[in-house]
Amino acid sequence: MIKTLAIEMKPSEDNNNILQELLSNFFMQKKPPVKINPKMREKEELIANLNQAKKELDIANTNFEFAQDEELVDYFIYKIKAAETRYQYLLKKAKEKNINVANLDMTHIWERKNKIE
């Protein structure tokens, strides 16, 4: 047997606002904002950028290996140089901020078991 709960409310502006807020909170599942330490956020962003730069470098190297057209070879040489420069810059910044980069994924794209997304 299903029991229902009926609440009698007289229409008023306050009740309407409270009901709207309750429904909004229920359906939106509002969570309090998470406060992240700015230094921790910077560290996480730098590590994410380093991982992305490494992936870009691996992809550029792989594409270079399979490029057959002379113009594509030149293009991938440019991409490799740009990716290396970005990666080296990010490594330098990480070392300046004393961020341990030893745990980054340093295996080449061909040696990975999982696909790069």
Core attributes:
3 helices; single chain; elongated; mainly alpha; 117 residues
What is the strand and helix layout of this fold?
Blueprint (H helix, E strand, L loop, with lengths): L12 H16 L9 H29 L3 H27 L21
Structural class: mainly alpha
| Rg, alpha carbons | 26 Å
Q: How far apart, in Å, are the first and last alpha carbons?
A: 51 Å
Helix content: 55-70%
Order of helices and strands: HHH
Number of continuous helical runs:
3
- Poorly predicted residue ranges: none
Query: What fraction of residues sit in β-strands?
Result: under 5%
Mean pLDDT: 77
Largest sheet: none
Strand runs, count: 0
Shape: elongated
What does this protein structure show overall?
This protein is mostly helical. The protein contains 3 helices and no strands. It is elongated.
Write a brief caption for the model.
With 117 residues, the protein is an all-alpha fold. 62% of the residues lie in helices and 0% in strands.
